[in-house]
Amino acid sequence: MIPSGILDAQSQSIGIPLIKKTTSPQTYEHDFKTLLQESKLKGAEGIVTGDIREVEGHEEGWLARVCKEVGLTPIKPLWMGDTKQLYLDYLKTGFKATVVRTKLSLLTEDWLGRVLDKGFYDDIIKLGNVDVCGEEGEYHTVITDGPTFKNRIELTDTEKHKLNGGFGYLEIKQFKVASK
Fold this sequence. Notes:
2 domains, two-stranded parallel sheet, 26% strand
């Protein structure tokens, strides 16, 4: 749901090439393995993930298996870290993230569009039943700025929506890339 143009802007802002591939649930694993194999031929030795906890067997099961099959090492620097401490560490980094998706049974539409800052942390801690880093799928974000960004991304026109299946999402209608 994040516009492809934002991914391009992130890539350009941090100076890391982006590989995009359209896929489907039916071909996802095959397409993912193909991209990993192509990356390996170009010199990649591993794949870095930001996962903290296992979600539906993805990290420890699926990703480990796929990496083994293509001969890459899964690198998990945040794996099994304390999510409260990781969030507080994130606050010190200078990155800016905005909530673009919520699980409505846990976080209402009011959380959409919120920036992950100290106020967000304090409010989510008060709920008690939500992982502060969203590791149970409670929320997803888009990064719009940080110390490695040459430019920041400003979300200039957004709209909140409810999806079938109990999710809310922030439609990003317009954004702009701005100098720091």
